[in-house]
Amino acid sequence: MNRRQFLAASAALLAARPGFAQEGPFRTKYYPISPGIGLHDLTPAPDGTIWFTAQGKGLLGSLDPRDGRFKTVSLGQGAAPHGVTVGPDGAPWITEGGQNAIARVDPADLKVTLFRLPEKFASANLNTGVFDRDGTYWFTGQSGYYGRLSPKTGEINVFKAPKGVGPYGITVTPKGDVWYASLGGSHIAKIDRAGGNATVVEPPTPNQGSRRVWSDSRGRIWVSEWNSGHVSVHDPADGSWKTWKLPGERPRAYAVYVDDKDKVWLTDFSANAIVRFDPATEKFNVFASDKANANVRQLDGRPGELWGCESGNDRIVMIQTIAAG
């Protein structure tokens, strides 16, 4: 689908669904990766590289958006990587569930270093990770755990989640607070970085399936709710919540990302689309994929660009978020 066809299709979709808004033009570009590679998460690096995990093949990959070329490195036998983020050292750090370890890949020579969890947490089911302001790496395990890794010493501490199974997405606020979402537990939680305890905060919608979280510039926690199809925001400053249902029939909100303008981006499996929400106007933009079953599992970005992994099509998608004109 070319750009003109894409805009026409989007306009038709918006006309059919009152309440949608479309600003533009936004530029959308797709980067095909190897079929069957099993894309999952990604993150942009300061040098322009896009790092991605290929869960289906146990690989970490790097994409050069300038020419679409990519290269991959094996993370080891039995690897099944999930999340990836770039650390203060400029290297990608990966939650490597297949080997029950946190993996670091040297961006220069692609050397893989593993930090394995203690044996008693062998079934942690690692999901996502984030660095706090002190350079500590925090991670989640969907089997009912979260933890921290000190890159300087290699020490790992693992904690049992207060409500058991479910820890999934994780984020850090501008002040340095760390929050995670529990998909199975339908809540979010704030971690005491000193002691390691987590305080549960319940969203207003019961059994909503909080899947991923992202902080905005004010330290508010945005939540994608898989079961309810809502996007919610919690303000820790006053304890308040606001909730909006994504447009369309039976939305399934998977990923959430807040850009540098505090616009909120989500993925909706039911609509086969990436959705943009403007908190100021409470309007949604919908960017439908040009292929069926896109299943974008994670979003990240940098100023002017939104990036996502189409796990169903093994493509990386970029939406330019600055309107041309």
Describe this structure in words.
The chain is mainly beta and 325 residues long. It contains 1 helix and 28 strands. The strands form 7 sheets. A 4-stranded antiparallel sheet has the order 1-28-27-26, with no helix packed on it.
Quaternary class: single chain
Unreliable segments of 5+ consecutive residues? 1-23
Mean pLDDT: 92
Classify the beta-strand content into a percent band. Answer: over 45%
* Major sheet details: 4 strands, antiparallel
GO molecular function: lyase activity
Subunit structure: Monomer.
InterPro entries: Vgb, Vgb_bact, WD40/YVTN_repeat-like_dom_sf
Function: Inactivates the type B streptogramin antibiotics by linearizing the lactone ring at the ester linkage, generating a free phenylglycine carboxylate and converting the threonyl moiety into 2-amino-butenoic acid.
Properties at a glance:
single chain, about 325 residues, mainly beta, 4-stranded antiparallel beta sheet, 1 helix, about 5% helix, globular, disordered N terminus
Outline the secondary-structure elements:
Layout: H1 3-16, E1 27-32, E2 39-44, E3 50-54, E4 59-64, E5 69-74, E6 81-86, E7 92-96, E8 101-105, E9 112-116, E10 126-131, E11 137-141, E12 145-149, E13 156-160, E14 167-172, E15 178-182, E16 187-191, E17 198-201, E18 210-215, E19 221-225, E20 230-235, E21 240-245, E22 253-258, E23 264-268, E24 273-278, E25 283-288, E26 296-302, E27 305-310, E28 315-320
Antiparallel strand pairs: 1-28, 2-3, 3-4, 4-5, 6-7, 7-8, 8-9, 10-11, 11-12, 12-13, 14-15, 15-16, 16-17, 18-19, 19-20, 20-21, 22-23, 23-24, 24-25, 26-27, 27-28
GO molecular function: lyase activity
Signal peptide: 1-21
Family: Belongs to the Vgb family.
